[in-house]
Amino acid sequence: MQRRSFLRHGGLAAATAAVPFQAPAQIGNQPSMKITEIKTFLVGSTRGEQGGTGNISGRNWVYVKILTDQGIHGIGEAYSCGPDEATVKVIEDYARWLVGQDPRNIQHLWDYMYNTTRFPGGSVVNSAISGIEHALWDIAGKAAGLPVWALLGGRVRDKVRLYQSIGGSSPQEAAENAVELRERFGFNACKMSPHNPGDNQMPYNEVTRTAGERVGAVRDAVGPDHDIAVDIHARYFEVQRAIRVAKQIEPYYPFWLEEPIRPENPDAMKKLADHVSIPLASGECNYTKFEFRDLINIQALDVVQPDVCVCGGIMEMKKIAAMAEAQYMMVAPHNPMSPLATMVNIHFAASTPNFLILEYRAPVDDARRDVLDSPPQVNDGYADIPNQSGWGVELNEEAFQYYPPRPWKRTTGFRADGSVAFI
């Protein structure tokens, strides 16, 4: 675990004084409040010693903690993009701007970070903004004595539906994993890859055929009413290839087909949507309402999947959801990060009418059990909605010493001819 903090001192006064907007002395009956310090915690998701390079089994989690002069603090999580030290550095740079400001002026501070960055941010910048934004909402909820969902319009549901991904080196193993997941946790939905390991080395037709075999095996195992989402994970570049795989799995009524092609070209996604009958889902690689605009407006998707740790934060995700609602689309947040990100997503789901289902990973390993004082409560495939102020949870900073950060990178796929494949 690495912890960094940024305090207001010396030459930083000029940076914070440059903000033209001055908050009132108090908000309602609440006294004035100022940010005094911003900390970051870089925590490994697996127990072990720091060190090593290259591929590892786990990734890091990037936490933000904002302190105020009223003794109230807030916590948030930034996305782990790979160069996690870079995300920490961006958060530290933003701290130069934010110390001294009232943390409850969330939209103003979001605009200040986003606009002053000048160029549209990528994954690192938007992850930093997202983690900071979460912590600001946590402070606002604690100051008001309300859960964050109550500040976002109130509850529209009693519980939050969850699903979890399954693995499997063969169709039979995938089917067994789906059944075990349902029996162990009560989920009535799962997500799976249609690919067998090493399919980048396989002939095109073999990959297409075995995709149908894998999904068919899982459908036979879980029955006709279990929802099965299928995730290609943006491994296809050609639209026609995605269409042919979609035709193979259509008979098994997938819940959706996720990231069937690369995310850069909305028109290509629309072309795909016009040729398949499976609902299409995508969005984890898109940031802010500006990147989601075209995908939503041209009706390229049925389900949008922003990630609250990289899309700009929970308020930005609410705006994306509102845009999707106007086009009759549902929202199923991408959520591979830590239990803190899950809790932020639960507040989003609690207050968003077109929320569909939330990606989840049960805390069965050490880190997921340890990093929060109490993980989200889950019963029969649904998460409880917390009623405590803020997010309703706190970081267990004492546990971080057992989870040092490690260098990591995504697995790289190679085709049979040695060229780099999409993965």
SSE order in H/E notation? EHEEEHHHHEHEHEHEHEHEHEHEHEEEE
Roughly what is the average pLDDT, rounded to an integer? 90
Number of strands: 16
Shape: globular
Label the CATH architecture of the largest domain: Alpha-Beta Barrel
Class by alpha and beta content: alpha/beta
Strand content: 15-25%
CA-atom Rg in angstroms: 22 Å
Q: Assign the CATH class of the largest domain.
A: Alpha Beta
Query: How many domain regions?
Result: 2
Biggest sheet descriptor: 10 strands, mixed
Summarize the structure.
The protein contains 13 helices and 16 strands.
Task: Give the tags.
ten-stranded mixed sheet; four-stranded antiparallel sheet; 423 residues; Enolase-like, domain 1; alpha/beta; 2 domains; 16% strand; TIM Barrel; 36% helix
Commentary on this structure:
This protein has 13 helices and 16 strands. By secondary structure, the protein is α/β, with parallel strands linked by helices. The protein folds into two domains: 146 residues, Enolase-like, domain 1 (2-Layer Sandwich), CATH 3.30.390.10; 241 residues, TIM Barrel, CATH 3.20.20.120. The protein is globular and about 65 Å long.
